[in-house]
User: What shape does this take?
Amino acid sequence: MKRSGVLTTYSIALPSRLALHENGFHIYLNKGEGYRNATIASLTKIEGFESVNMQHKIACNPDVKSLRD
Assistant: This one.
């Protein structure tokens, strides 16, 4: 994936987000009226989306394990 690329998924599950975070992605929430929440991940910071505070999520869920193949 190019550094300017963006990954999107309907998954908002913490294990999925944690796997992306552990691999260097910045995690964002895409939400709006008329569609369900989704995750956006990018290797570079992007504007216009709400950043997900992964450190807080990890602190609140100390036993969470990232999604692995």
